């Protein structure tokens, strides 16, 4: 597995090794030991799976507040997304900065979204399926979001008129969003 760092410390892209042959391929899409050897230690306890039927579906930017903050390990099993992670830890030297990465069924890349970061994804092709592991359970009371098009973030999404959920149409800007993440706090 290749581990590729990004400009945001803690946000890494993982590239599992796929073994191709005349049948197709085989890969270990998740191996706790391999990740631990790369210094990545998380006890994932829930798997999530979503289908976006159309290209241009944008989900996000989402996070769960402390004490129900989530680490996410995100990948795509059909289609492709432009996946975005934003540092929203107050006092962080990279507060408000984001990274965008293409995850696709073809490139098999995964992105690790640490606690204290908001996450969003925009589909690049129809029938895109996102799979991700999380290290705490869903908690609707702690679920929060930030507007995908917050001008303070200036995210270079691949489209300007995305298909959004009702909730994501009404998300606040980062400056107004409820956020109890503190840089250097207990976000392990
Ligand atoms: C996230 C989640 C949602 N749900 C339910 C709530 C709702 O009825 C339905 C759809 O939820 P949402 O509209 O929040 O789904 P979605 O917009 O796909 O939300 C996801 O977006 C991406 C970007 C993330 O990072 C995820 O953590 C998650 O927030 O599924 C669960 O039952 N369990 C869960 O873990």
Automatic annotation (TrEMBL):
GO molecular function, one term: dTDP-4-dehydrorhamnose 3,5-epimerase activity
SUPFAM superfamilies per the UniProt record, alphabetical: RmlC-like cupins
Primary enzyme class: isomerase
EC numbers for this chain: 5.1.3.13
Pathway: Carbohydrate biosynthesis; dTDP-L-rhamnose biosynthesis
Pfam families linked: dTDP_sugar_isom
Domain of life: Bacteria
InterPro entries (UniProt xref): RmlC-like (IPR000888), RmlC-like_jellyroll (IPR014710), RmlC_Cupin_sf (IPR011051)
Alphabetic keyword roster: Isomerase
Keyword Signal among UniProt keywords: no
Subunit structure: Homodimer.
Protein's UniProt name: dTDP-4-dehydrorhamnose 3,5-epimerase
Organism: Paenibacillus planticolens
Gene: rfbC
